[in-house]
Design a protein that fits this description.
The protein is an alpha+beta fold and about 375 residues long. It is about 40% helix and about 25% strand. The termini are close together.
């Protein structure tokens, strides 16, 4: 039975003054995990903590119900200033009980800030925590551990099946494109356009009618087609930057951060310097072009160079060789892969729904265990 409800700050020690951020430039690589708001972001050559503690995302995290905002870390590690470091009082609060509970509720009511949302320390301390006895907390944790073990087994099985599907898809693509013996350099079969970004502080350059795509936007696309982008440029913005407007039905490829995102633009479109616009010659169909690059992601990543992040230059991209079958053969390949990807999408959507359902089930189990003890 839950004996009382207390604010989090009453039953734990907050060790935020011990954490220390290290910019990437000054990090020395090593064996110790470097934690941020959502988990490990790097490995460094030194550590701050050497005990099992609870981390809770302060900024740069998600705070919805089931978002795994809180997590347990152990061993030797470093923590930056994006995660709160919590040491629950052992005689009052079980670490895993705290993590299970915080991840089962919506924490957004305690998050402040619109531009940069943040769960600050003051708000963190004010979060009410149901507090059954330590023995009862341990019993709840044991039941939840058992339930989540079975749930996680199922989730991992589903994820492994998705990986198998992706691997099969890659093999099919590669084998299909090996059928054509004729190859040409990319520069021979398409025009390559660079992207650009006008001054982001100049309001005259933004909010116009010209769609403007970024690799980040491309990573959120639900399919290969794009009509509307998050931001738009004015004609002045186009003129005062290196951005180019490519015609509709071109193929846009992200060439850095990350390499390999693809899109076919349904309207004339500009993009930032992280992308290249590929306008195929009449001997190539744009969807064939799209599928070719979809099969070449490993090749593209291998072509990338750079220390901070990998990037493919226009010069390197222009030298990539592409198979050029007849237009009839291209149409047959496109039809074949349209059917394959339709079936793959159905399967992936089912898998994603199953994973979401199992996560919801886990959260429901948490709520049931904790609320039942309160009655």
């Amino acid at each position: 039975m839950i004996e009382e409800t207390v604010n989090l700050g009453k039953v734990c020690e907050i060790l935020d003054t011990l954490r220390k951020p290290i910019t990437k430039k000054f990090r020395k690589q090593g064996q110790y995990p470097y934690y941020g708001a959502t988990g490990i972001v790097d490995y460094v050559n030194d550590y701050i903590f050497d005990e099992t503690l609870v981390l809770i995302g302060e900024d740069g995290a998600k705070w919805d119900k089931g978002d795994q905002t809180a997590f347990i870390v152990s061993g030797k590690y470093w923590v930056n200033n994006h995660a709160h470091v919590i040491r629950p009082f052992k005689d009052k609060l079980n670490q895993k009980f705290l993590v299970y509970y915080l991840n089962s509720i919506d924490l957004k009511p305690w998050v402040t800030g619109l531009t940069v949302p943040k769960l600050n320390q003051e708000k963190l301390k004010s979060i009410p925590i149901p507090l059954p006895s330590i023995e009862e907390q341990e019993n709840i944790v044991a039941k939840l551990d058992e339930a989540f073990d079975e749930i996680n087994k199922t989730i991992n099985f589903i994820k492994n099946k998705e990986q198998e599907v992706n691997a099969l898809n890659e093999i099919i693509l590669l084998n299909e494109f090996k059928l054509s013996l004729e190859t040409k350099k990319l520069s021979e079969v398409c025009k390559i356009y660079n992207g650009g970004t006008p001054d982001t502080k100049n309001k005259l350059y933004w909010g116009g009618k010209n769609q403007w795509l970024t690799p980040r936007d491309m990573g959120k696309l639900s399919n290969e087609h794009v009509d509307v982008t998050l931001r738009q440029l004015t004609d002045e913005g186009l003129k005062n930057s290196s951005a180019n407007l490519v015609p509709k039905n071109s193929v846009i490829l992200s060439c850095r951060a990350p390499i390999g995102h693809l899109a076919i633009n349904n309207v004339p479109m500009a993009f930032n310097q992280g992308c290249k616009g590929l306008v195929p010659n009449p001997i190539l169909l744009n969807r064939y072009f799209y599928y070719f690059f979809l099969s070449s992601k490993k090749l593209l990543n291998n072509l990338g160079t750079g220390t901070t992040f990998k990037e493919i230059s226009s010069k390197v991209l222009s030298s990539v060789e592409i198979n050029v079958p007849s237009l009839d053969m291209q149409k047959k390949i496109i039809n074949k892969f349209d059917l394959i990807f339709r079936d793959l999408k159905i399967l992936k959507d089912i898998n994603k729904k199953q994973i979401k359902n199992y996560i919801s089930l886990g959260n429901a189990i948490i709520g049931k265990e904790i609320t039942s003890k309160a009655s």
